[in-house]
Amino acid sequence: MADGTVDGQMLRALRLAANVTLEQLADEVGLSAATLCLTERGQRPLTPARALTLVAGLVAIREKRRAAFERLLREAGHDPEAEDWVPADAAEVAG
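The structure corresponding to this sequence follows.
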């Protein structure tokens, strides 16, 4: 992908699909949100190394969220590894 705009659009699509803000990703990978914004617009080159760093940052954020969710499940007395931890019906959730 020689076109920086296409690379930036792909990065933005990945970031939005992961439900991650520019600021969250910037904090995770040690870049400024302004730099990421310029990259998404195609105004700053997305080198293979930077692309890998940004995707790794998205994965790291996902793993942190998953770990936090599993910790909450355990604190609530559920086993996140079990397939039956989801409440059987809405009454159980509301109740």
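The radius of gyration is 18 Å.
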